[in-house]
Specification:
The structure holds two protein chains of two kinds. By secondary structure, chain A is of the alpha/beta class. Helix content of chain A is about 30%, strand content about 20%. Chain B is an all-alpha fold. The radius of gyration of chain B is 22 Å and the shape is globular. Classes of the chains: A alpha/beta, B mainly alpha.
Amino acid sequence: MKSRAPRLSARARRIRGGVHPPEHKHLTADRPIRRIDAPEVVILPMRQHAGAPCTPRVKRGDVVAVGTVVGDTEAFVSAPIHSSVSGTVQNVAPHPHPAGGEVLSVFVENDGEYRIDPEVHPLPWEDMGPEEIRKAVRASGMVGLGGAAFPTHVKLAPPEKYPIDTVILNGAECEPFLTADYRIMLEYAEEVVEGLRIIMKAVGAPRGIVAVEDNKPLALRRMAEVARGRDVEVLSLRTRYPQGAEKVLIANLLGREVPSGGLPMHVGVVVNNVGTARALAHYFRTGMPLVERVVTVTGSVVREPANLMVPLGTPFRAALDACGGFTEPPAKLIMGGPMMGLAQYTMEVPVVKGTSGILALSQKETEFEIPLEPVCIRCGRCVEVCPMNLVPTYLAAMAHKEKMEDLERLNVNDCIECGCCAYVCPTKNPLVQLIKAGKAELARRKVLFERRAQEAANRGSGKEGGDGGQ
Amino acid sequence: MEANKFVVSTSPHVRDPISTRWIMCQVIIALTPVTVYSMAIHGIHGFYVLISSVAGALMGELAVQKGRKLPVTLGDCSAALTGLLLALTLPPRVPWWIALVAGLVATVLGKQIFGGLGHNLFNPALVGRAVVFVSWAAHMTAGYAKSARIGIANTATHRLIQKALADAASGASPLAAMKIVYDPSLSYTGPAGVPKLQASTYYKPLLLANPWGCLGEVSALLLILGGIYLVITRIVDWRIPVVYVGTVAALTALTGRDPLFYTLAGGLLIGAIFMATDYTTSPLAPRGRVVYALGLGLVTWLLRFWSNNPEGVMFAILFMNGLVPIIDRYMLPRPYGKRGAEEAGKP
C-alpha cells in the first residue's frame, strides 16, 4: 500500500479550451450540508433520469414507506423511483418538471413518521460479485448526480469488449455557484472513497482517481487524507470550466480522447460524480435507495444560501423557503449552474435526482443584449475556448441558415453544449443556443428522412412501379 | 402564491462582460502613445491628417448606415479605430482631403459594402490607404519629402542621416534610402565628406524617434509596447505579429541584409501588430494564423526586395487577407475525438 499526496501532474497537462467565469462559490462553500424536512406532499416525477421513463407502481390511496418503489420499468436504460417519505399516495397526475414540460408524477402525502420500507437492509458489497453489485445498483435507483442523471448501473455494465482500467470520480464541480460536491468531499470523504471502490469492483478497474479542481484545496487535502493507503489517487485539476465535462476530464487526466460519438468506456474509462459515489456507499451501508440528495441553493438574491440535504420530490419553493426566501424578486430561477442549468418558470417544480443546485439570479445578473441577427467579428474566442475543438461561430451561422449538411460536416453532434462559446462572445451572439437548435433540427430531419425512406420502400414493394424508387 | 415571473431562456445564463466596443477601445488605447508622440514630432500637419482620416471613416460608416436605414453602429468604436489606424499609415504632410477620401473609402468600400462589421474581406484601413496610394502617388511621396525635417528629434544621428540623405535621396524613408544603398547598380556613396549611410545608423532613430516615415512609424518602441499590451489583455493572438516579424527577419538575414533594420523600418511593426491581427480579416484558428503570418512574411520580403517599392507590408496584408477564406477552410482545429477513425472503438 502506497500513500499518495495530491499530485499536481494533471495541472501540467495542456488544458482544452474552457473559460473561467466568476465562481461565486463563497456564498455557500462554508455552509455545512443541512438536512431539511420533507414537505407535506412530495412530488415524484416518473422521469428523473436519462432513458426510459418509469410507470407508476402505486395508485391513489396506496400506503408507502421511505424507500418503497413508486415507479419502475423493464427497460435497461432507466432507474426505479422510490418514495422519499412515508404516507399515502394522494394522486398520480402530470406535474411541471424542472427539465421542461409536464411529467406524470406520484404525489405522496407525508405522514411525518418516516417509516422505512421493510425491504431496506444493508448490503455487504465486499462479499458481492460485480453482477450482484450491478443488480443492487439498479434497484437503488442510482443515477449520475452531477446533473446528467444517467442511470449508474448502465455505466457499471460495459460490454466485455471494452475492458475498463480506470474509474474517475469527478469532483471538478466546475459550474460557478455550486458547492454540493465540495461539501460532500469535505463531509463524506470516507463514503466517497468507498463508493469509488464499489464502482472499481463492479467494473473490474485497477485504477481509481478522484479529480478535484485546484480552487478547492481543502477538499483536495481531505480526499488525499482518506485516500491514503487505499490505492486511490487524488489529482488536482486546473480550475477551468468545463473541466468536469467527462470528455474534457478524460483528456486532461489521462490524455485519452473519447472517439466522436463514443462513450468513456470506449477508452477504458468510467466517470462518476463524487456525489454519486457517496450516495452509492450510503446505499450499500444502509440499504436505503436514492431518496435524497445534496442541493446547493444559492444566488445573490437568496437570503441565506446553503447546501441542503433535500428529500427528492420537495418543491423548489420549499427548498428556497428553507433558505429564508429572497431578498428581492429573482429574475431567473435555474436548476443547476449558470452555464448549463435549466431556467424554470415556476417554483412548484420538484427537486429531482439531477438537481445539483437551485440558483436564483437578479435582474442585473441576467441582463445582456442579444443581437437579432448573428453578428460575428471573427475574433476566434469561441474557437479558442471550445473544449471539443469545434468552430462554434460557423456552427451557429449554419444553424441559423439551416444548412444541415454543413452542420454535419463541421461535427455539430460533437458539441457538448457547455456554453463557453456563448459566454465569451463579445457580440453576445447566442452561439450555443443556435447550435442546440441546429442539433435538434438535424435530428428531427433525420428521423423524418428515415421515415420517408421507409414509407417509400414500403410503397415501392407494395405497388408495382411505385414512385420510381431511388 | 406570489406572482413571480421568471425569465426563461436556454443556458448559459451569464456572459463575459467584454464587448466589441471594449475590444476596439483597447486597441485605441494601445495606439494612443504612438499617436500622441507622432503629433509631437510631426506637429499640426500630422494632426490635420489624423482628424481628416478619422472624420472620413466615421462619415463613411454613418452615410452608408443612414442610407440603408440600418442601425448606426459608430458606438462600437470600430470605425473610429479604422480611421486612427489609417491615419497612422499616411505621410504626415499629405493634404487633408486625401486623408478624408482615404477614410471614406476605408469604411465605405473597405467595410460597409461587404455588409459591415465582420463581413469585410480586406482590412478597411489598408483598402483606404491602397486607394489613395495608387491614386495620388505623387502626393503620397511628396508627403514624405516635405516631412523630412527632423524637428524635435534633433540628435547627432538624425543630423548625420539628414546630411547623408540631402544629396541623393532627399526625404527618403529609411527603407527607400537603404534600397538605394543596397542597390549595386547605383553604387551609392553619399555626399562627399559624410560617412556612408548604413542600416545600423538607423537603429536608434527608428526605435525612439523617426521623422522619416508615416505618422505611425515614429517609434518602433511605442508600437512594440502597444503590442505587448494587446497580447497581455488577450486582444490579439501573439502568433500573428511574432511569426510575421520573425519570418521577415529570417528571410532578410538569409538575403544578406540587416534583419534588425528591416524589422524596425517601414510599416512592418504597425502592420504586424495592428493590421494583420484585425479579427475579421485574419484566420479564425491558431494554426491558420501561423500559416497566414508565414505568408505575410514571405510576401512582404518578396515585395520589399524584388518590387519597385521599398515597402511591401500593405500589399502583403491585403494579399493574405484575400487568402484567409481558403486558409480557414483547411486550417480549422482538429475536432476532439477524431483521432483517426480506426482507432475509434478501440480502448
